[in-house]
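Quick review question:
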């Protein structure tokens, strides 16, 4: 009963609003309902909850993928120029269709599907319920006939249930009970746990999650890392020394870039015996926010916004699978561990080293994938300003293109001291291939 109570409240509120709605606006409700701000608000709330509940970046990408597919699929029947993703996404069977001859308000269905899938995949369900209540009340105010509204809600529920059933077949549940990654502490060449928390390896079996568009996790093999070596003349040593020197002599601009793209959902500040957790937006959440910013700034309509969101989300999700496959295959030692052993035992990176192997950079990979997807939609070059990190007291940054931003992301991981140059560059190239494949494989317009 507790799960249904917030929904009951907004249903009652909407009913009361219908009883006093202005009749004059009733004949315009379909046009008025096509408001992309509904999608933007839903994605934003999902991002806020992901940050609050501290989902890891790969898991967050899964939430975005299923939520945006649900929103898109529930909206498509109202736009005959667009087509379903069923049969295009791995394992997605035909989505329930609206009843022939009946009137629907598909933006209502889309909002309902987005929020139902989102609330099911996160923890703080009440936060999603509160937004859903506000959105549905707004729909009620524009004069949607009650039978149309109820029918649209029911259709959104059908789509959400279909997407959630599909989500249960992607092997995610099985990875929750998989054995911990075994760290070979005697092997000097491989990843070891890093300070300050010395956490277990994060999502070591993420490459077993079913891809969304990619055929296999290794469809686009990443460029290999340099062979491990302690020799000071070796490419590996030189790569680590480069990170060390850059961090020791970082300019204020480089430090700003490192912090701007930190995007660590659970960073730790250590002061003496005290440890304070800082909740920041995930890398995928940062790019979903960029997509929202660009759509808002350019007044992109609702169906096009839904198309853009789903393409970015799927590029992010498959980008994480591709990168994580390479990470645990290559199992490369992090700069922090290597530098402490062979260059300077007291050195610390500017930003916290995340708990998984180095090669390739996941942030570089998914950023290039998302940037490629956005470039396909908006063209090249496409200047924009990103203010995602303003909430964390960092100034907005402007870019000449999406790939301009993605390349800065790759550089930021070296400025922060957590990746070698090769890991960043290989990740960027791999992400571009993933984003290109997603962009050209998905057919949304007929």
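Suggested answer, residue by residue:
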């Amino acid at each position: 009963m507790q799960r249904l109570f917030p929904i009951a409240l907004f249903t009652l509120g909407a009913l009361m609003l219908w009883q006093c709605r202005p009749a004059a606006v009733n004949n315009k409700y379909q046009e008025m309902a096509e408001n992309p701000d509904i999608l933007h608000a839903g994605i934003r709330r999902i991002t806020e909850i992901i940050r609050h509940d501290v989902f890891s970046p790969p898991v967050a990408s899964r939430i975005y993928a299923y939520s945006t597919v649900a929103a898109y699929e529930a909206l498509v029947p109202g736009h005959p120029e667009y087509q379903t993703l069923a049969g295009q996404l791995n394992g997605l069977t035909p989505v329930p269709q609206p009843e022939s001859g009946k009137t629907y308000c598909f933006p209502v269905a889309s909002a309902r599907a987005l929020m139902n899938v989102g609330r099911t995949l996160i923890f703080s369900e009440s936060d999603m319920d509160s937004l859903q209540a506000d959105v549905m009340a707004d729909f009620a105010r524009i004069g949607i006939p009650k039978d149309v509204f109820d029918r649209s809600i029911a259709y959104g529920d059908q789509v959400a249930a279909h997407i959630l059933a599909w989500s249960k077949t992607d092997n995610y549940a099985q990875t929750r009970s998989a054995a911990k990654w075994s760290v070979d502490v005697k092997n000097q060449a491989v990843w070891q746990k890093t300070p300050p928390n010395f956490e277990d390896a994060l999502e070591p079996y993420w490459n077993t999650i079913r891809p969304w568009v990619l055929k296999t996790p290794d469809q686009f093999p990443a460029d290999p890392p340099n062979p491990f070596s302690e020799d000071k003349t070796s490419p590996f040593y030189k790569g680590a020394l480069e990170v060390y020197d850059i961090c020791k002599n970082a300019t204020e601009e480089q430090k700003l870039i490192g912090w701007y793209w930190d995007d660590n959902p659970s960073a730790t500040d250590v002061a003496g015996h005290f440890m304070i957790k800082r909740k920041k937006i995930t890398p995928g959440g940062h790019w979903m926010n960029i997509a929202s910013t660009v759509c808002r700034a350019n007044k992109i309509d609702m169906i096009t916004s839904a198309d853009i969101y789903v393409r970015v989300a799927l590029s992010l999700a498959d980008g994480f699978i591709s990168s994580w496959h390479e990470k645990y295959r290559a199992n490369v030692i992090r700069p922090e561990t290597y530098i402490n052993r062979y260059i300077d035992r007291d050195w610390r990176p500017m930003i916290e080293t995340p708990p998984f192997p180095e090669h390739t950079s996941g942030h570089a990979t998914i950023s290039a994938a998302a940037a490629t997807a956005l470039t396909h939609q908006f063209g090249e070059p496409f200047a924009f300003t990103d203010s995602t990190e303003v909430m964390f007291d960092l100034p907005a940054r402007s870019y000449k293109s999406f790939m301009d931003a993605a390349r800065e992301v790759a550089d930021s991981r070296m400025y922060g001291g957590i990746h070698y140059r090769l890991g960043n560059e290989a990740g960027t190239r791999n992400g571009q291939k993933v984003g290109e494949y997603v962009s050209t494989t998905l057919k949304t317009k007929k």
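Why it works: The two ends are 43 Å apart (CA to CA). The chain is about 55% helix and 5% strand.
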